[in-house]
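Dear colleague,

As promised, here are the two records you asked about, laid out in our usual form so they can be pasted straight into your sheet.

NAME FIELD: protein one
SEQUENCE, THEN STRUCTURE:
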Amino acid sequence: MLALFRAKRVVHATIGANDANVVIALLFATEHQPTQLPAVESRFKNEGFSLAKRFNLHTYDDEGSSIGENMARKGSVKRMNSASDPELPMLKGEPAPDRWRRSQDHFTTMTELIRQELDDETQLVEERWKTWSKQRLLAAGVSLFDLKARTQGRFFGEDIVVFEAQDRGRLPEHRFSHGDIVLISRSRPWGEKVVEGVVLDRGPTRLRVVVGERPRDVRKGGWRLDRGANRVAHDRMHQALTAFHSTEGDGGTVLRELLLGNVLDINQSAELSPDIRGKRQLRGPRPSPSNLNASQQAAIESALSQRLTLIQGPPGTGKTTTATHLLHHFAQQGSGPLLATAESNVAVDNLLEGLLDLGVKALRIGRPVKVREHLRSATLDALLENHPMQEELAFLQDEQRELRRSLPSLKGKEKGLMHRDISINQKEIRRMENMMTASVLDEAEVICATTIGCGHRLLESRKFPIVLMDEATQATEPSALVPIVKGCRQLVLVGDHQQLPPTVLSRRAEKGGLNRSLFDRLIACGLRSNLLTTQYRMHPILREFPSARFYENRLEDGCSADQRPPPAGFLWPDWDRPMAFVPVEGVEEADEEGKSRSNRDEAAKVLGVVNDLLAIGDLQPHDIGVISPYNGQVRELTRLFEMAGGREPGQPYAGLEIKSVDGYQGREKEVIVFSTVRANDRGEVGFLADYRRLNVAITRAKRGLILLGHPTTLRHDGTWRSYLDWVEEHQLFAWHVTHSS
């Protein structure tokens, strides 16, 4: 009776709101399952929704509801689908929800967040240019001045420009590294034409940059290099948001309502079979699962049969291995074309390498300069260079150059006829290039590209019903949508929401929720993930705390303590447990940029620890990773090791890596030395308070982990306090190292 009374009350309220859809749904629920109604109403209220206002009768409404009116919008979005018109629009500044009831709200919010990110990044770059002194720019490592330049051959059709100091001596410390976008100018990048390039590699005395357009008079005068904002990423994310929400055209994805969380039961909806049309042609036998563990096999089976799958891979559990084997299964089933993507070039290269090792025909889209050297043969550019039609194309291109050279000497009718011949020739060249590109793309079983790279014009007209995204928790939601709107009908997201979130530069955009991944939001909606439970990286003692704290004690060891012997050279507090915390009574300092921190006392102690580890000969420099959460400390450590002998080939520390924690996600080393930096009387730990950063830092090591820090400061944070309690309980504080000279 109580259930019936509540149902009638809500129905009467709904009739007042003129929502017939809800009336039908509630009467249906009352007739068949009256005891369920109070629980449903309570759940909706807890989520901030009124049951009287909104109840979607169409449980799996993937194409958009026919009940809500299509909202007209000027510009590129002709019609926006908003399946729940009775819902009031979001207020400006309102926190982003887990479930988006209104399509329009999602579009408006995400569009605003990516605009804020671009605006703030651009403003930061321009502020540096116009207000920072030359000394400050150099100290921050974001600019290089007074360089001389020369060309040095070509790289897949583009010029290589070498930048050096005027005296050919060592360059100042800087942040330019392989794959970075740089702006090339004379002296004032905000007031003159700049050339954009990509760093090919770096050395102590030079920087090699690949450019699409060679700077004029490259050998004359001096040059300046700056880090720039990425406009291309913003534009492709905006286009993806438009396609995701537009009801016109053939773009977007049938998974829209599911991805928005706008379904009644998200797990039932995700587990539906994918609606992929066309006949599959088996290309080979089903791959053997013998080299995969039980949790990896279970994840693959789920992903093969359902339209949306989350695979959560804690550190060292083989996320990428699972992803490549899953793609191999899809390829053998003839399920192509497949799109394999990730946020970073490093992660995409890992997918590419794994696929090639399994014998899958994988093709890498993107500039070869951003791809690892030994994988460049699998890039589109490399395959086009070796295409059977390349000789014919080269002949036409040579002929075209000859025609253009003869043009200035012609007049009148002859010149007009020559223009016509050049135009005809150019069309033929373009037709042949398009044909060659299409043939290479058609032959591939898997296309590999970064999430933003999936928006490249080469893939503009192509549809990919199956999309797999690795490191999905490092991609912002708009970035993740770029591959998804390529016609995705079956989606696999591989990641770990207990590790670091997407990197967002804008504080405004971060506060608005741009640093939350699609993977993380779907977990919050209640979508179940497939957890990989066997880790193959860490000594069992190094697995113990992260498993208990972050993974409900569900991680198992795929390697024994005997397979991860403690490295010699360092005096471990317990030789059976190769982990140590070295207390350091240091003082943190703010850097030139004002946004980072360093700690000279800790840096000096790190140098001593590394020297001890190398002294016996058990480890080589390339076996050790030195990490810190702050770029200021990374620069301080880099300077210190340069003064101590250097890290270039032939020098004492050649191969030693010094990076930020954020830059080390997905990496591993025999030994990790972690400098925590923060040491102050106020107990401020900054972004060390993000437990995910601690999780990443303490799960990179295979045989040994050494942390250096100020325990009193760190204990002001709850997660760090728990970790230090665990260290104390296991008697792993290395006070003897603290007091050594």
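NAME FIELD: protein two
SEQUENCE, THEN STRUCTURE:
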Amino acid sequence: MKNLFKTILLVALAVSCAKETGTDTTLDGTRRYNISLDNLTKTELTGSGSTRQVNWTSGDAIKYYTEPNQSSPASTNVVLNGNSAYIDIQPGHADVFINAVYGATQLNRGFSTENTMYVNSPVKNNQSYTSFSQAHICAAFSDDIENPNLTFHNAAAILKFTSAAAVHKIVFRGNNSEVITGGSNGSLKITHSSGALFVEPTSASGTSVTVQTSGAESDFYIAILPVNFSGGISVACYDSNLELIATKKTTNAISAVSSTGAPKVLNLGNVQNWLNNPLPVAVDLGLSVKWARTNLGATVPEEYGDYFAWGETAPKAEYKWTNYAFEQGTGRTGPFSKYVMDADLGTVDHKTVLDPADDAAHAILGGDWRMPTREEVEELMTSCQWTWTTRNGVSGYRVTSNKSGFSDDSIFLPASGLFESSVSKAGTEGKYWSASLSADESNYAFSPYFSNSSRNIGNCSRYCGLAIRPVEGAVVPVFDIEIPSSLDLVPGETAMIKVVVSPNNATYRSVTWVSSDESIAIVDATGRVTALSEGEATIKVYSADAAITATCELNVERKYVDLGLPSGLKWATMNVGATKPEESGDFFAWGETQPKSNYNWSTYKWCNGGASSLTKYKASSLYGSVATKIALDPEDDAAHVNWGGSWRMPTFAELQELLDNCTWTWTSDYNGTGIAGRIVTSNKSGYTDKSLFLPAAGLRDGTNLRNAGSYGYYWSSSLYTDTPTSSYLVHFHSGAFGWSSSFRFGGFSVRPVTE
């Protein structure tokens, strides 16, 4: 006789078939099936631990199938007979198998086969079961209708807890987001194969269970799928306002899988014990970290809690510079012993975030609790709705998540003021510490600030006593910083250094920058380098804890092109005042070394208000005293004064050499920049691949810029001796190019040369 009973998560009962051997048939044609008491898969739970017993109760309702296309399940009740239990089952049309279940509200029509059942069960996303039998589910499979015994196997594990009056809702979940329910209907597929039962959700499923306890101080049972919680479990408790008030979390692996077929019952204990011994409650707002429900030192959200100086881990009676832990002088100017970015305030250590030992939240709470970074505070400000309100008479902000799936979650930040000799501005302003040092001055740290009309992130003196709202999130350290190993710039040029911080999920991703020689180049807080003068410098970047660094070797020099000219002269690749070949750069009057806003005789340096009163560089008595200077002195040479070294303005003869030995080609779009000008290409053998670009920068006349984009004017260092009110230059437009002269007061471009 075949004996193929199959196990699953719901209590199932077998039906009879046509053969009567071994069965007990009643007068009305039903068949009686004994339910074995040896297997602890029944409906009434007694005892605890290894002595736990589960027994059938008279009247327990069994639903069953006896054919695949049965329009709806049939029902029968358990009957106790002394030390035994049985059920009576009406014979089916086919009488080929029996699938039976206890604890399922409905068997889905047309989905039962010899080895599979689809059921709606108590294993739902939302539950509120106050007895074991409500949450229990077991099932039986049989294709041996001659066997009068049915063996039921458990299809669900049970979690038990005792709730408290302050708790109105509890949410249970696995820490690794394990699927633990059959969705809103508890829809499950139960399959028997190779002597074992398999239970899985049929479609929509859930990773959490919500239990509405409504303040009842009684036992509750949660039906879940029998799974292994490899990362442990978490339980969150909410009050009547649906605000999170307590959490319970374990990271140890927990198994809800029974090794015997008997129900696995996990006792979570009494919730009141969690409330009596509160740990910080971490509120999940769907952000990068979880935020504590209360301030450090507070027991309820509206309490201000303790006040701390930045980097100190204990409150004190008074907060001032002279009793600040890291201040070694007498005031805000230091010197400071730690967290210093400015050499005027102490020995620079490049630390811009608190070490764990100096983080009050971590030092007091331990674990993954810590003070938030500036970035985490900014995330809270930008990803949540801030509503000024009162809680139990205390003013502050209710901060509600804007993240999908978290809009029901919030925290309350009381307007806690600040503490110096006493607490001030409490009830009207809130100031909280972050773990981040100010980017502006090392005697300040970043502090989120709010009132009923505004909120932002500012700076606060490190000695001040402020509240702390902890966050929970494991610190992921930076293990590498990558920046380019070298960089070439010209004076005046800027460049952004790309930085890659690894890993991508590092907690403290902010970095700081420093230049080894600020006379050569400076670097700002974003990594933008500005080259100031020719030379070499090292740009160094530090992680927030100063543990990881990277360097970039910077070379700053002017660039020139050798066109193979007979004189051997080299021409600069850009104008004075420019950082790229296509830039116009600055405009200069002849013999002046700085640009200005107004170019005319009245503002010209080398005259007394007009062309007839020249004071320098004059070769005719018509324009003042006779003198012989016809070329600019080095101190009056805009190229030499601004670029230094051997750089200077070209002479008229050197301009003529450039005209005679090169091809001058007009372009309206130099290298895709949209800038018009002349490309000057060498005609000399071996140098025909060499060229420079002269942008059509126009000229400055009075306060106006004229002819930009259509004409170019470039000074020489040579006076036009026939008319010393003018000097030689080269000029060009799209139709012509050549040398000319112009009044010395005009604002023209300067292209340097060097030997």
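A couple of things worth noting about protein two: Helices lie at 132-135, 271-276, 360-365, 374-382, 638-643, 652-660. The longest strand covers residues 535-543.

Best,
R.
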